[in-house]
Design goal:
The chain is an all-alpha fold and about 400 residues long. About 70% of the residues lie in helices and about 0% in strands. Helix 4 packs across helix 7, helix 7 runs antiparallel to helix 8 and helix 8 packs across helix 9. The two termini are about 25 Å apart.
């Protein structure tokens, strides 16, 4: 989903949250960067960052799949474990993966009043495919969603609200799952220092995010103060890099409050429920792959698998590779093997899981993109999308 949902490469495309100037009708004013006299220098900077990002991604993938995994276990043992699955096991895995894909659009549909489920699926699948294949694909996927929603008559402000709210809830679940997993491990008497530290950080971040959201929705003055505070922090972080101060974030947070308070108050339970279902559906594919490959409950319990899954999902917040490819694989294999699973079987299960949740969405998303390009029956004039009582008149 990023999801705008769940998604990073092993789930729906994840939304990288930032204050959007188009939450309102006008862009947030930001001090312009000093102009460079050399056009060629500007052009080189445009492609230098994506090129370097792409090289880093390729290097990480090469190290993981051509060095780490062969050092960890033999490729022949991995392949033998995969071949040992029955047709029934393969079929149930594929059905679980299809169900996982089917949950991608629920969050976006819930956060976008007037959007249909088919439209939500087409947009999330296409954006996920971009996020899984292109360095920095999360931003490109968001731009694609703006284009799709715009062609269906949704304004930029309504699209922004959908992306931000779904992204906030996606991050809530990402931060909350390690905490829940750790609590379950404590009940089983299985904890580790690193897990406790990570879960504690996740809990603190989750509590802080919920408190900020509550204050932001409580009053306009609180929203303005949060925007000013965030702007001061952003300006301080930009200063060492010679970047100009940011401005207008107080206006953006006030506008965000105006756009979202009706939606969140009316649908926060539904948004939470569908976000949880989407994340747990992704975990179910991993758990089913482990069991079908031969990693038993005695070797790696479902609680231990959930803990490893939850901590590995946090790595998708680091956009070093598209969809966290390589990084997530290493975290899952190392974590599950450390929990007690045989290396070959764990590696085989993780690779099957990633094939179904990272690779499969790519052709599905490409098909959805082509469908959107060719299908004109959903097209509407700008601003002509269906309106509900959850959409402010100015949106």
């Amino acid at each position: 989903m990023t999801t705008p949902t769940p998604a990073s490469g092993s789930g729906p495309a994840d939304t990288n949250l930032k204050l959007q100037g188009d939450i309102g009708d006008a862009a947030v004013p930001v001090a312009p960067a000093p102009e460079d006299d050399s056009t060629s220098a500007r052009s080189s900077r445009r492609w230098l960052r994506p090129a370097l990002s792409g090289l880093v991604s390729v290097a990480i993938v090469v190290v993981v799949f051509w060095y780490f995994i062969p050092q960890y276990t033999s490729v022949s043992d991995i392949w033998s474990s995969i071949q040992a699955m029955t047709w029934l096991e393969l079929t149930t895995l594929v059905l679980a993966a299809i169900w996982n894909l089917a949950t991608y659009g629920w969050v976006v549909m819930t956060t976008t009043p007037g959007l249909t489920y088919p439209q939500a699926e087409v947009s999330t699948q296409a954006s996920t495919a971009v996020a899984n294949t292109v360095p920095g694909g999360g931003a490109i996927g968001m731009a694609l969603i703006y284009s799709m929603f715009g062609s269906w008559g949704f304004s930029r402000s309504r699209t922004s609200v959908s992306l931000v709210v779904s992204g906030v809830w996606n991050n809530f679940v990402k931060l909350g799952m390690p905490v829940v997993a750790l609590a379950l491990l404590v009940l089983q008497g299985k904890t580790g220092g690193a897990r406790v530290v990570t879960a504690t950080i996740g809990m603190a971040a989750l509590i802080a995010a919920i408190v900020l959201l509550t204050l932001l929705l409580k009053s306009e003055s609180a929203a303005r103060q949060i925007g000013l505070g965030a702007a001061r922090v952003a300006t301080a972080l930009r200063k060492p890099f010679g970047k100009a101060p940011v401005h207008g974030w107080d206006l953006a947070t006030v506008k965000f409050r105006q756009r979202t308070q009706l939606l969140i108050r009316a649908r926060w339970i539904y948004i939470t429920a569908v976000t949880l279902v989407s994340h747990l559906s992704l975990f179910f594919v991993l758990l089913l792959a482990l069991r079908h490959i031969g990693v038993s409950e005695k070797e790696v319990s479902w609680v231990e698998a959930l803990a490893v899954f939850a901590f590995a999902r946090l790595l998708t917040a680091i956009p070093l590779t598209p969809g966290g490819v390589g990084l997530v694989d290493v975290a899952l294999i190392a974590g599950l093997a450390n929990a007690g699973g045989a290396r070959a079987e764990v590696a085989a299960a993780v690779l099957v899981y990633r094939a179904l949740t990272y690779v499969l969405p790519i052709p599905v998303g490409l098909a959805c993109y082509l469908f959107w390009k060719r299908n004109h029956s959903w097209r509407r004039a700008p601003g002509a999308a269906p309106r509900t009582d959850l959409v402010p008149e100015s949106a």
